[in-house]
Every structure is written in C-alpha cells, then in structure tokens.
Write a structure and sequence with these properties.
The complex is a heterodimer of chains A (about 675) and B (about 575). With about 675 residues, chain A is an alpha+beta fold. Helices cover about 30% and strands about 30% of the residues of chain A. Chain A is globular, with a radius of gyration of 30 Å. With about 575 residues, chain B is α/β, with parallel strands linked by helices. Chain B is built from 20 helices and 15 strands. The chains are: A alpha+beta (about 675), B alpha/beta (about 575).
Chain lengths: ~675, ~575
C-alpha cells in the first residue's frame, strides 16, 4: 500500500490522512465542488475533484471515486464512515479494479446490511438477539397477533432495510399493531424502497452499548472493549464514552465475548462494531454490526492507546492484528461530544454559514477531530458536524469536567451549534451518575442556554464596549464625548439595547432601559482587520471582575467568557425604507400615475402576475406580484398619482393546509375567497 | 522687577506622590501608552489635595460648574416640556436627537455657545444648536434649529450663533450640515435681524464658493428667509409630508396674489423633489433624511488638507480633575499655568521658551492630541515690557514654523506706572498686539482666569479672531477688575469734586463704588460674556484637553501658513 485515497470528506478524511502520513503512505483526497477549499483537501498530498455538489453526484459516485484512484495511482481506498463505507457494490468494484478496500469483504457487508439476515446469523452464532418476527407484505391479522406473542409488548416495528430511526414505531397494545405496521411499511417503502418490516421486542430505557471488534485475514478476531452511546437525539448519537458506566467487568466479558462471536460468525476482517441494546437488568441483545470505522472510534483509541486507522490499514495490507491491539487494556475514561451546527431550539434544524472562528483551548488530554477550520463554510449538502471533542482522564468524572470545560471555553463563532446542549448533558446529575439511556434527551430538557438572561445582558454590554473600541480605534479623543451631554450612546442589537456613557466617574450603562451595575475595568482592542476585530473587555459586575472576549465580524459580535457564550447582531441603524415593507407589498418603483389595475381584492395570484400598471415618463411599468397568494388590498385607483415607495397593493401569502390542492386544481374563485376569509 | 526665583514657585507644593494619569480608576480606553521622550522636559506638577487653597478652589469651581450645568439644562430643555411633548407627538425627533443620529456612533461632539442669549429676553441657547461633529468620518459643522423654541424662529442671538458657526466652518474648512426646521425670523425682532440675516444666504453660498460643502436636511418649516437655506446649499434633502419650503405660506400668498394654495403645493417635499427640483433627495421620514445626509457626506470624497497628528498623543501624567483645585476662583490669587499645561499637554511635556526671562508670562512648545502647539500663558497676571517682547518673539517663531498657538489668559493687563511708561510699556505692548494681530497661524484662546484690560487684546481676545475661544467658569472679562474700576471711578470723581471746589460725599461715593463693583462683577461674569457670544462656550476645566483636541483637529482640516517676511527682530 503506497497511496491511499480517502473516499470521504471532513474530519474522518483528515483523521485517516493523519495516520497514513505517519505510516509513510501517500494520500489522495476527493472533493465535491462546495468542498474545493475544505481543510481535508489541503491535508492530502493530492486531490481530485468530483464535479457536483450532491452526495449522489460526488462522494457516493462509485465510478467517479474509482476514476480518481486510477488518475492518481492510488492502490487503496479508505471509505471513512457513511457514504460508500458500507456499500457492498463499492467494495466489490474496488476488488475488481485491483484496489485494496480498507474494510470488510463485500460478503460481510452484505450479510450485515440486512438487519433481518444479520439477526438470524447472530442468533445462530449464539449471540443474544431480541425476539422478533419478519412481517411479509401480506401478513394476516392472525400472523400479526402470533408475532406479538413471540416478541411480547412493548414491541418495535421497524424497516428491515435502512436505519436512522425512520419507519420505527413502538407498539404498546396489540390493538394498535395493524395500524402501526401499515404506517411503518409506508415509511420504509418511501425511505428505503423496500417495505419489508419486522417486529421485535422493545427494551424500555435501553442503553446503546457497542463493542469495537477487529478481525484480520489470518482468522484472528479481537475486541477493544465497549462504548456507550446512549445520549442520542432523533436516533443520532451526540455523546459517546468508553467504557460504559453501566458495564462492570463481568458484563464486559459477556458483551465482548458475544461481540467476538458475532464477528467470527461472519469471518470479519477489519474494524467493526457490534451494537447491543442493554436493558436495565443487565440483559443485552444484538442490534446490528457496523462494518466500518465508527464516528465515535476516538474514545476507544484514547482508552486503549490503539490507533484504529493504523490497525485498519495494516489489516488491509494483510498483516495480522497489531500486538498492542490484541493486548489492549482499558486505561481511564474517554468521552466524546459531537459539536453540530444546528439549532437545538428549532428541533435540531441544521444550521449553515461561514465559521468565523473555531478554536479549542489547548489541552493535551482533549482531542479535537474536525473537518472545519476558521473560515470554512458549512453547506447544506453534507453533515453539519463541526467537530468531535474528546476528553480522556483517569476517571469518568474528571473526563466529564474536562470535556465540559473544553466545550465551554472553545471559540465557536459562526452558525448556531448544539454546544450548550452538550454541556448541559455533561453537567446533568443523571448523566454524571451514569443514569443514561437513549431516552435521556427526551426526558431531560437540556436546551436551556448556558448564558442566562443576566449574563447575556453583561455580554451585550461587552459587545457594545467592543463595538465602541472598534469605532474609536486609532482615535485619541474620548469616546462619545459631549460637553452638553443629553443622550447616551446606543448599541442596538437585534434583541437587546445597550445605552452607555463614559462619564467622569466611569461607565454608565443601561440594558433595555435597566441600569446595570457594571464598571469597566479594561477594554483592549487586540486586533482588527478584514476578518473582524478582537476586543478583550474587563467588566466588574457585582464587585467581581471578569474578562470577556468579543470577536466582531461585520455586524455580529461573538462574545465568550469562561463560562458561556453569546452571539449578538447589530440592528441596522438606518434601515432602508424598503425594509419596512411586508414581503407581500407591492410598491411603486417610481413616481407616476396608475393606468390599469388588473386584479381585485380576493383574487388568487401567482408570483409574477401583473397586478397594477403605473405609467411614468410615457412608459408603462408593470407591478408584479412578488409572491403567490391572495390580493388582500388594493390601495390606489386608476389615475392616481403615486410616489416612489407608495404601497399600491398587498398580497397575503398562502399558508393554508390546502395549498397543494389549490395549486393542483384551481377551484372556483368564489370558493377561494371564502377560504381566504376564514 | 521680578526675578525668577531658582525654585519655581508652585501653587501648591506636593506632600503626596504623583497622581496617576488615569482618573478615579477609569479606563485607559482611548490613548496610546506614554512614549519616552527623553529630550523633551516633562513638567512636574504635584498638588496637595488637602491644602485649604486646593479644597476651596475645588469647591468653588464645582459650584460654578453646577451653575453652568443648570443653565445648560435650560438650553437643553428647549421650549419646555409642553412644546417638547407637542413636537414628539408629531412623531418628530428633537434637534439634539437628530444630531445624535447624524453623528458617527461613539464620536465626540463639541457644542458651541450652549448659553447663547443668556441674560437676554430670549431662551438660553438661542433656539439653535451648533457644533463640530463627525459624520461618516468627516468633521462637519452641524447647525440645528430647535423647533420647540418659538418654532425654531430666529432672533438676533440665533443669527449671531449661526453666523459664528459659519465662521468656524469657513476658517477651518469644515462641511456644513444644516438641520432645518425654522419658522424664519422672529418677527417682533426683525428690526435687529433683517439686515444682518442676509449674511446667512451670503455665507452659505460663499462657503460653497470656497469648495466647502453645504448640506440642508429639511425636517419641517423652512419658510421665507429660511427657504433660502436649502436654496443656497449644495445638497438638499426633504422629509416627506414634513418639509415646507416656500417663500410665502398659504396666508401670505392669499394676501399677496389672492391665490389659494396649500402647503404641499407651495413647498412640500414631494413637490420640491419632483416639480421644482429644489430637493435632491426625498426622504420618507426623519431617520431616512439623516441616513441620506450621512450618505451625502460619505460621498463628498472629503479629505482634510492639514496634516494629522504628528507627535505622540499620550495622556498627560497628571489628572485633569486636579485642575478644579488648581485654578483660582478668587482671581486675585495667581496660579502657575504650568500646572494647567501639565494636565493638558501630551505626556505633560513642555519645552519652555525663555523660561527665565519675562517670567510673568510662560511660553513654550507642547503638543495636544498629537498636534504641535505653542503656548502663551499668564503666570502672574501683569504683562511687563519683557513679557510683551517675549510674547512677540514667541508668536513670530510660531509663525516661522507654522505652529498653532494657544493663549491661556489669566491677565490683569499691561503694567502701569511712571517707570513702565517711561521704559516704553506702550511700545512693547503694541509690539505684542501687532504680533498677535498679524500672526497667521491659527490661534486658540482659553480664559482660565482674569481677562482684564489690553491684556485681553494682547493675549488674543475675541476681537483678535482666534479660531476658537473658550472660557473656564471662574474667568472674568472686563476692561479692568471690578474693584479697580470702581476705585478709578471714585478717584476721578474725587478729583473732579476737588477741582470744582465741591465737597466730596464719602457716603455717596461708597454706595456708588459698591454699585459699580457689583455691575462690573455682573457684566464680567462668563455667563454674560458667553450669552453675548463673545466666546464659543464655557467649558469644564477638566474637558480642556478634549476641547482643544477637537479644535486642533478641526483646524487641521484646512491649510495654514505662518506670516513670513517680518523676520525675527530681537527686542
């Protein structure tokens, strides 16, 4: 193996490159168009563009990836996780092309790709599995009842193919079974193209525990202990740790033995993960085998000291399992938090945008694997995981504190992230006590922002001071000086107003009209430039002095102190007149007279429909509808003189439930008027 | 004669350590760290905060400042609560609110003559606000009518204040922004107003002729004479449904021609923006108008012609707060101006010129906010022959090097007496007046104490057209001190009685003396002086450095050159 292509992007590509370089292997990156400037491209020795943006056109395009390998002469491909990592066809194509696929055999991938097949294999190998029944498309009511007999309640209906929680439904009573099965089938069919579902025992308060296994081509299989990944939101892991706080030595031995048996059952080669569901009573059941390197592999690396990527590459080269892997022991505790660009409050909606700064405090025992850097763009095309932050310490408590500290002190400036959620989880009593299960986030509200309202106000003051420093940079006259003081200086942010004055006795400051007993101890403009200004503000609040860092980029202030962060956005001091208009407003573009009106109140209109014609300077200007909807008002008459910016008419957006029906088959206008009036 | 003692007399010799340059734990926000300038002497100026003189000066000065604040509050109150409320109810911004929106956030604004019209029948402040502010990065003269005071109409004091602002704009080459909302002339005062008010039109267009941009932001009434403000300005913005710019309103038009016309058709923003073309920009509201005004300035492609700060602008080593205890409230007690300079000059650095000659006047070189400046400051009130000669030489030297001059006045005038007259006091005094009058470098004058007699002239009083003139609240301005003036009057009366052989009524004389003293005391009060616009405003001594910094920065918007060709004749 001389040259390794990583058919992936982001942090995992960089992770693989790091080890490859240490092993003297040349590296090749592939990248989509939006990733042209991405850090993983720069990290590799060579890089090949996969034209396009959507994953199917780029990182999922087997031919394009193989072409890149041929172009660069890469003799091995590491698939990372996701994308082509568990794609049997890709593994086969690599083999056909004479390229080493760093992963298990196509057969093993195929065997584990079907959950039903995988479960049967494991049951045969003596691995505990959840009792379950596959339900064919034509299952009768009797068959359904019989199936429920096997599994017991509660039971879970889920898609046989696919994952990510789609198509999963929980059945608490036999009466609901038929309905849930039908619904699950529909979802599974829509999502995965195969509506086979199965029913299995549902474990309440389950923990997600998985065992890292490793096989080589010499028939050796070893394990690297377990990880617990119970903290999940919408079936997506967010915090993972090793070892599991719920697993003692005895249980560990059972789990690991079962996992090794599972791997042996499919002649597993390479890195794999056997996932189990662990019940309150210590019983565990096989879930599935992930035939790839996991996102959360670093926690295992940190507690065992084994470089899993190195082991993957050695095994792929045909070497036996490294000695350190076989002889690995558990050392301390490691926890990983996945920092996502997402809006927790908006139901974890992905956030996008430019990362103005991403930096973590320097700590040897905190590892950061990230595919992003300051200046990177988070696009809508790919996963928005900004970084994995992993701490390692002798004990779980210390590791928790270290990780929470690293997260809190990190500069994460740009899109909204789940940082506060992560910290809230880490600091939660139940989490600290090891009372974790997959329902943790549903049960505990961890969405409270770390910055309380009071702290946010202090941060707003700091941002105002920083803004002021920026305004006064290079000036020696006192800031905002008046010989006839009347008004305070105003720093208006979108959600908070700071008014302040540097009086003879220091800073007077109001936040949203309330006086804040804040004294300014220092304010230092550390740097300024195109990429924003950095101001360190020392504020004394309630006799305690705190340093607050403010990073200003354009109109945005990113405020960090030792305990939390805030983002404040300057309100526009002089909003342009047009900004006052509602999106559905039709404004006169120039002064003129109204010559025609082509609609009446209540008409259903499409975006682009002409509603009013204004004549000015012998030319007719059509005033088109900016948005589809209903004409709510027409405010001018034919012949009327209008000014630039005069509101001519307004259109109400459609947000009715029957929107689709309307567009599909326009109904008579009179009915529509009633609808819009209701 | 006075001989300079080896030990420089100090107002108050310190028993305590030097006070730091940061006041009251406030913050080093704005100025660079002091640089080491080994070559330039740094003033040592420690004061004893516990001496009786310090505390009584401080108490006295604070009381005077409080009096001043009280008057300023009247000016800020404009036409009073009722009119302010009415103005707001119309959805309008107050004049000062307009200015606050117009100037750059966090920039300083120096308002001129806030107590104009003090002591007159008119509102303190004269219904107009003028000052230097920074708009889109450009130092401008801002002139705003206060429509809450009699509709912003103009009285003779308003006019004087307005014209003074134009002077400042012209001399220092500062763009002018008029925030217009004025009902025109205050008609009952038209006799004192009509003729000189023509200067407003003339000045505006002359400014334009000099390449100094003029901008009119019209927020409301701008009628009759006022209509010419937008008319004479380079750039005009009018607020929709608010601006009314016409020569004659509906009643006047009806009277003159019988025509029935409404406000909008005679002078609305829409009409002027579309029909007459008088308005260059149509603003939808006041805020929009100010936005447009800021954009106009941003697009002036403006460049200051003078050079920027050229020396280290570090703070003085001593706290400006101590000026309150240093300056004498009782003007009979002199104080060392070096103690003032040490709290005004960059890094308290002062290179004294002719330190041991003519010691009643301190002269020397310093810089303020990085702008080099020559300073002349009275040390012990009286100007003798040597002081006059020294001043003349120093002024000429400043002209040789194009260095602006700062006059710190605390003078009781030129020395009188047979010896001095015979030695040519008038000749030497004339040299100094000559030098001041013919000097072409910018002058700034601050009255920090007494300003009596021809000393006011020699030290560049108002008649000598300093670019800026400010007063401390403790200062007094008169032909001579009240006691002296009353005494002189008494002696003259006594002589007159003697020569006429009339008996001299001592009791009546005493009453008259007291009356004259009181009158002079009243008339020489800085509020009265500033009310008559004989200065550009009373300033808090603690703000002196800032005010001078703003003034010097404004001065350097223009070029200037010292007078050459008179050579330096030694005297």
């Amino acid at each position: 193996m001389k040259k390794l292509l990583v058919a992936n992007r982001g942090e995992i590509a960089r992770r693989v490159f790091r080890t490859a370089k240490m092993m003297g292997i040349s590296t090749v990156a592939v990248y989509s168009d939006p990733d042209a400037e991405a850090p993983h491209v720069v990290d590799a020795d060579e890089a090949v563009n996969l034209p396009g943006a959507a994953p199917t056109d780029t990182y999922l395009d087997i031919d394009a990836v193989l072409a890149a390998a041929h172009l660069t002469g890469a003799d091995a491909i590491h698939p990372g996780y996701g994308f082509l990592s568990e794609n049997e066809a890709f593994a086969s194509a690599c083999a056909e092309a004479g390229i080493v696929f760093v992963g298990p055999s196509p057969e093993a991938i195929a065997a584990m790709g079907s959950k039903i097949e995988a479960k049967r294999l494991m049951a045969d190998a003596g691995v505990p599995v959840l009792p379950g029944v596959t339900l064919g498309a034509d299952a009768t009511a009797d068959e359904l009842a019989a199936a429920l007999e096997v599994t017991g309640v509660p039971a879970l209906v889920k898609a046989a193919f696919g994952g990510g929680g789609r198509g999963m439904r929980i059945v608490h009573h036999g009466s609901a079974l038929a309905e849930e099965v039908t619904a699950a089938r529909r979802e599974a069919g829509a999502a995965f193209g195969d509506d086979t579902v199965f029913l299995e025992r549902f474990v309440e308060h389950p923990r997600h525990v998985e065992v890292q296994v490793f096989g080589d081509s010499h028939g050796n299989v070893a394990h690297l202990f377990e990880r617990e990944c119970s903290i999940q939101r919408r079936y997506q892991k967010v915090i993972e740790e090793a070892p599991s706080p719920a697993v003692d030595d005895g249980l560990r031995a059972e789990l690991c033995t079962a996992a090794v048996a599972a791997a042996r059952a499919i002649d597993y080669v390479g890195a794999g993960t056997v996932e189990f569901v662990l019940a309150d009573d210590g019983r565990f059941f096989f879930l599935e085998v992930n035939t790839r390197l996991q996102v959360e592999h670093p926690v295992t690396e940190m507690v065992t000291g084994v470089d899993l990527v190195e082991a993957q590459l050695r095994v792929a080269r045909g070497e036996p399992l490294p000695v350190d892997l076989v002889a690995a022991t558990l050392d301390g505790h490691a926890i990983e938090a996945r920092l996502y660009a997402e809006d927790v409050a908006a139901d974890y909606a992905p956030a996008t945008g430019r990362i103005e700064r991403l930096s973590f405090g320097w700590d040897d025992d905190v590892r950061v694997d990230s595919g992003y850097e300051s200046g990177s763009m988070v696009s809508t095309y790919y996963d928005a995981m900004l970084a994995k932050v992993i701490s390692h310490a002798a004990t779980r408590d210390v590791a928790i504190d270290r990780l929470a500290g690293a997260l809190v002190r990190a500069d994460v400036h740009g899109p909204t992230t789940n940082r506060d959620l992560l910290v809230n989880v880490l600091r939660h009593d139940d989490f600290r006590a090891g009372r974790t299960d997959t329902g943790f986030l549903a049960r505990h509200d961890c969405t409270t922002p770390l910055a309380s309202l009071a702290v946010r106000r202090v941060h707003a003051v700091a941002a105002a001071i920083a803004r002021q420093c920026e305004h006064r940079a290079g000036q020696t006259l006192p800031s905002g000086w008046r010989n006839v003081p009347t008004a305070y200086q105003r720093a208006e942010f979108t959600d908070v107003l700071v008014e302040y004055r540097f009086g003879r006795d220091g800073l007077d400051v109001l936040v949203d009209g309330d006086e804040i007993a804040a004294r300014l101890a220092s304010a230092e403009l550390l740097s300024s430039g195109d990429d924003g200004g950095q101001v360190q503000v020392g504020l004394v609040v309630d006799d305690v002095r705190r340093l607050v860092q403010v990073h200003r980029v354009g109109a945005v202030s990113y405020v960090d102190d030792a305990t939390c962060s805030s983002t404040l956005v300057d309100a526009e001091r002089f909003p342009l007149p047009d900004d006052f208009a509602d999106p559905g407003s039709l404004l006169a573009p120039m002064p003129g007279s109204v010559v025609r009106i082509l609609g009446t109140v209540g008409d259903i209109v499409e975006a682009g429909d002409t509603i009013i014609v204004v004549e000015a300077m012998k030319m007719e200007h059509r005033i088109d509808c900016p948005t589809a909807g209903t004409i709510a008002a027409i405010l001018v008459d034919v012949g009327e003189q209008v000014d630039t910016g005069t509101l001519l008419a307004s259109v109400d957006d459609h947000d009715h439930d029957d929107d689709q029906d309307q567009s599909a088959s326009p109904a008579p206008a009179d009915r529509e008027i009633e609808t819009s009036g209701s | 004669m006075f001989v300079r003692p080896a030990h420089r007399p100090r107002l108050i010799v310190a028993g305590r350590g030097a006070c730091g340059s940061t006041a009251r734990g406030s913050v080093e926000l704005r100025e660079a760290r002091p640089l080491s300038f080994a070559a330039v002497p740094v003033l040592r100026s420690n004061v004893d905060h516990h001496s009786e003189r310090y505390t009584s000066n401080r108490d006295g000065m604070l009381a005077l400042i409080a009096d001043h604040d009280e008057q300023v509050a009247l000016a800020v109150a404009g036409g009073g609560e009722r009119y302010v409320e009415r103005h707001r109810a119309r959805g309008k911004l107050l004049a000062r609110e307009r200015i606050e929106l117009l100037v750059d956030p966090d920039s300083p604004f120096l308002e001129f003559s806030p107590l104009a019209a003090y002591g007159s029948e008119f509102n303190v402040g004269a219904a107009i606000i003028t000052g230097i502010g920074i708009v889109s990065g450009v130092e401008c003269v801002i002139i705003a009518h206060d429509p809450t005071v009699r509709g912003g109409s103009m009285n003779p004091y308003t006019l004087k204040k307005n014209l003074r602002a134009f002077d400042i704009a012209r001399e220092n080459r500062l763009p002018v922004i008029n925030l217009v909302e004025s009902g025109g002339a205050d008609l009952p005062t038209q006799a004192d107003l009509f003729i000189p008010a023509g200067n407003i039109f003339r000045n505006l267009t002359q400014l334009s002729g000099l390449g100094i941009p003029t901008i009119a932001l019209v927020f409301g009434n701008s009628t009759a004479g006022g209509a010419y403000v937008p008319g004479m300005s380079d750039h005009t913005v009018m607020v929709a449904d608010r601006a009314k710019v016409f020569l004659g309103g509906p009643p006047l038009v009806k009277m003159a021609t019988g025509e029935d016309a409404d406000d909008e058709s005679l002078g609305g923003a829409a009409m002027h923006s579309r029909t007459s073309g008088l308005s260059d920009y149509y603003a939808v509201d006041e805020r929009d108008c100010i936005r447009i005004g800021r954009d106009i300035v941003a697009n002036l492609n403006w460049r200051k012609l003078g050079r920027g700060p050229s020396t280290a602008p570090d703070r003085p080593l001593y706290d400006a707060d101590e000026l309150l205890g240093i300056a004498s409230v009782d003007l009979r007690i002199p104080f060392d101006p070096r103690d003032v300079i040490a709290r005004v000059a960059d890094g308290s650095r002062f290179e004294e010129y002719k330190e041991q000659y003519g010691t009643s006047l301190v002269t020397g070189w310093a810089s303020i906010h990085g702008y080099p400046i020559g300073i002349l400051a009275n040390a012990r009130g009286v100007l003798f022959l040597e002081e006059a000669e020294k001043a003349s030489e120093f002024i000429m030297l400043a002209n040789q090097t194009d260095t602006p001059l700062l006059f710190l006045q605390n003078t009781t005038g030129y020395m009188v007496g047979a010896d001095y007259e015979q030695s040519g006091m008038i000749k030497d005094g004339a040299k100094m007046v000559n030098a001041v009058a013919n000097s072409t470098v910018p002058h700034i004058t601050v009255y920090i104490g007494a300003s009596y007699g021809a000393g006011n002239y020699g030290m560049c009083g108002r008649a000598y057209d300093p670019r800026f003139l400010f007063m401390w609240p403790n200062s007094r301005v008169a032909v001579m001190g009240p006691e002296q003036l009353a005494g002189v009057m008494s002696i003259v009366a006594r002589q007159s009685a003697a020569s006429a052989g009339r008996p001299f009524d001592e009791e009546a004389d005493e009453a008259r003396r007291r009356g004259i003293e009181e009158q002079i005391e009243r008339e020489s009060h800085p509020f009265v002086m500033t009310g008559k616009l004989y200065d550009d405003g009373i300033i808090d001594p603690r703000d002196t450095r800032t005010v001078l910094g703003i003034a010097l920065s404004a001065i350097h918007s223009n070029t200037f050159e010292g007078r050459r060709g008179w050579g330096v004749f030694r005297m």
